[in-house]
Design goal:
single chain; 330 residues; seven-stranded mixed sheet; alpha+beta; 29% strand; globular; five-stranded mixed sheet
């Protein structure tokens, strides 16, 4: 059986570029070399290219191919691990759809919708057992009266870009005086932002993936940060955050959460693997939805690889199933 050519897309246009590169290194190391020829293609604003023997070989965007040592290489499938634009917001998916190439993530529509936190919350708000924090969406072009925001929501608040990942541009605000600086920080990252009431409780992140045609809910990870909230520094600075996989959740609660995650996955028409972040409220133990990540981090110590190992699977086996599923449009 001939090996499949896999284009592994990494990089992107955002501050998550290096995170994406680390994800790609781990994926490449764990895709079975006996089954796949893996080509890591770097995506930047200026060019798409493949690094080969110290040279940068440009991708021919007319047919999504590369030419190495005089041989034209075309791809059987694409593994997108670009966090943020253009790999998580539907742009790359739309291009690949036009090229007729299968890929591992949600489709262009779902990727675009789930990148928008406010739209996502609206779509999943009536899922059984799921709660969403009260919030206000703001546009950069609008006037922003902090007293109006303060009267509509209860402090403390989270202020965050509406489109984005890795908690870049996010702030926790305790009073009206802190709002202007937080709004400015978030608007620096996005033209739309979300101001959301803080839900006190235990924070979790949990993967769900379609493997061999079947939806599989991975074990949850509990996030315990020494910082006030799980921001970019907490996510990527060693020692700042404790990640407990599998999380200590009762069996009954696990069953309810698995049902919620499955409903969200189906409601949003997800494909491949996604990771859903949520909080179990301190007083009620109710489930509060935070967001869905359609291209979750895949570095060796990222949450999905942790959860795959906790589920008793090898990461190599998992990635193989994701690649095979993408070829079938699953």
């Amino acid at each position: 059986m001939s090996k499949k050519n896999v284009a592994l897309l990494a990089g992107g246009y955002t501050g998550e570029y290096e995170v994406s590169i680390n994800s790609a290194k781990n994926i490449a190391a764990n895709l079975d070399a006996d089954v796949y020829n893996v080509y890591t293609l770097l995506i930047t604003r200026d060019r798409w290219f493949y690094q080969h023997e110290g040279q940068q070989v440009d991708v021919d965007k007319n047919d999504f191919s590369i030419t190495v040592n005089g041989s034209k290489i075309k791809f059987d499938t694409v593994f997108i691990t670009v966090h943020g634009t253009p790999g998580e917001d539907g742009k790359m998916q739309g291009y690949l759809d036009m090229m007729g190439l299968p890929y591992n993530t949600c489709d262009a529509t779902t990727s675009a919708i789930t990148m928008n936190k406010a739209y996502t919350k609206a779509l999943v708000s009536d899922v059984k057992h799921l709660n969403t924090a009260k919030s206000v969406k703001l546009f950069k072009t609008d006037m922003h009266d902090v007293s109006t925001i303060a009267s509509a929501l209860r402090f403390p608040l989270f202020v965050k870009p509406n489109n984005g990942g890795s908690s870049v541009g996010m702030s926790k605000v305790h009073n009206v005086a802190e709002l202007p600086a937080a709004l400015e920080k978030a608007f620096h990252e996005d033209s739309q932002i979300l101001v959301e009431e803080f839900i006190k409780g235990r924070e979790f992140s949990q993967g769900i993936a379609r493997l061999n045609g079947k939806l599989v809910v991975l074990p949850a990870t509990e996030i315990i940060s020494s910082k006030e909230f799980f921001d970019y520094e907490a996510k990527y600075t060693p020692g700042v955050t404790q990640e407990i996989t599998p999380a200590d959740i009762s069996t009954d609660k696990q069953d309810i959460i698995a049902g919620i995650l499955t409903d969200v996955y189906m409601r949003l028409n997800c494909r491949g693997m996604v990771r859903i972040d949520f909080i179990l409220q301190e007083e009620t133990n109710d489930f509060y939805f935070i967001e869905v990540n359609t291209t979750p981090g895949q570095s060796a110590n990222s949450l999905i690889p942790q959860q795959v190992r906790a589920a008793g699977m090898s990461v190599k086996e998992f990635y193989g199933m994701i690649v095979e599923g993408s070829s079938k449009g699953l």
